[in-house]
Fold:
Amino acid sequence: MSFESKEQAEGYWKENLKIMLKLLAVWFVVSYGCGILFIDQLNEITFMGFKLGFWFAQQGAMYVFIALIFIYVKQMNNLDKKYNVEE
Amino acid sequence: MDVQVLTYIIVGLTFAMYIGIAIWARAGSTKEFYVAGGGVPPVMNGMATAADWMSAASFISLAGIVSFTGSDGLVYLLGWTGGYVLLALCMVPYLRKFGKFTVPDFIGDRYYSDTARIVAVVCAIFICFTYIAGQMRGVGVVFSRFLEVEIETGVVIGMAVVFFYAVLGGMKGITYTQVAQYCVLIFAFMVPAIFISVMMTGNAIPQIGFGSEMVDGSGYLLAKLDGLSQELGFGAYTEGRKSTLDVFCITGALMIGTAGLPHVIVRFFTVPKVKDSRISAGWTLVFIGIMYTTIPALSSFARVNMIETINGPTVQMQDGSKVYGQGTSYADAPSWIKNWEKTGLITFDDKNGDGKMFYSGDERNEMKIDRDIMVLANPEIADLPAWVIALVAAGGLAAALSTSAGLLLVISTSVSHDLMKKTLRPDISDKQELMWARGAAAAGIVMAGYFGINPPGFVAAVVAFAFGLAASSLFPAIIMGIFSKKMNKEGAIAGMITGLLFTATYIIYFKFVNPTGNKPENWLFGISPEGIGTIGMLVNFGTAFVVSKMTGDVPQDVVNMVESIRVPKGAGAAHDH
Structure:
């Protein structure tokens, strides 16, 4: 094992899961929330010439998806460094 | 020069390039054949994965589907991009750390069972065949329309090219060819989109253009499209027609299915480190996103253009009211209508005998327009220069070829590695294994070509199958394998089999046994066969959980393996190209 102790290994995995779940929550909200469940309510709002719900479903959610992966990469790289398990 | 000569030149040049790359990047060992030696730089892998993923269906059909379904098209746009978030966050880094070649490898080792491995192999092969038949068909359509050869000849040429670089180069050859194919296909997709966006809205960025006002002063594009659609009896373009629960489940099945597709997952085994696999998933989505955010823009441009070409322009009156076109003379129809009529993808039936074409969603309709022609016909509808039309043909071919090659690789790996080496004949040498891989790729191409020439009528129907199966079988098994140390082989196998049976039975019943009953009122909770994979996934998770509680423990060495894949340090050494 590359960790100094069992606690370290558990700590790393816990923080890893926390990062993942937070980002997945955002993923769920923009796609299923804004793009599907609340699309009709959001369509009442106009945004840059679009109905907002329609924009989320056909544009916005995809931009957020990309951002989420890059944020994940950054946070995980920091975490790897913190626990000294980077390659 | 006329369109056809230009098309021959551009398609010829791109094919020569693919073959040149294949000769340069031949594979020497099984590791190079399966995962390109694990030494592909992350940005390049991202590009190759994007080309692998964006198939003939994405390039040729998707804009048409969104164009014809309006708001409900979101299921594909979100479903086929959102899955990459799941891949990047929950699967890719761990599978890269695991460090072997295939998805069945992971499932077989993690669940210490050849039965589990074989269930995974069967799923993988079935999913890939479903997919590849459609690709070869796409090649045939492009050839027959733009190069005016028979569909059969087109399919054979396509087969020959893929055969050459997939069999020779394996994953290494495929990866570098896919990078080139991505460049060709994205250029071919963006050029007409930008042209049309400038012509209609004065904005060079299609993503912004389709929210803008029209240059001819007829107001916001989407508002105009809503007006037109309602007038013609289609319902507003920006409002959905499917039930919310069904949209939710279809999007889910496509997302989860994407994350369970073997030809996508295996691409992330090709990068040097765990760190690289994470960022590579990000680049993949950037490269896919360029096209997928353009698609909805193109869809609405194409819709307005097509309706106004056929029905005649909308006239804005002094008092602000609108007078919609009432049809245009068939005798003076633009050449694209005549061209596509020859392929049978557009038909005109002059019901009221006035010699005018009219397109609508109600009983006044006189046109039948296949949605698959929207992207290919778009440059002609918008009257763009001939070289743009030629470019689109080359792009469609690039999309179809790159995806076929990726799928073939999974088929050949499944046979040579998972079936022969790991199950039936463990004593074969590396060289013999490579021969099996090449032989299986060759056999795969011949079968794909056969389906391309004699397309089974169910191609469209089985797409739901591929995603439903991936979502209900492979995805849960992989996720539980990474995130649970307690999931044992009994649980995983029971889960895969029940998920698979549930989903397959539902789809087969409504698509093949009782297609006339395929209506919302007969569906379970109103969920269509396209969306049932989401429920199948839940069935899989539930069964696996219950069965694993009632059966034995996971062996200690497997627990150690799970612990080791959770940490990046120590992924197997890669070698440079």
The interface with chain B takes residues 1-3, 9, 12-13, 16, 20, 23-24, 27, 31-32, 35-37, 39, 43, 48-51, 54-55, 57-59, 61-63, 65-66, 68-70, 72-73, 76-77, 80, 85-87 of chain A (CB under 8 Å). Residues 26-81 of chain A form one domain.
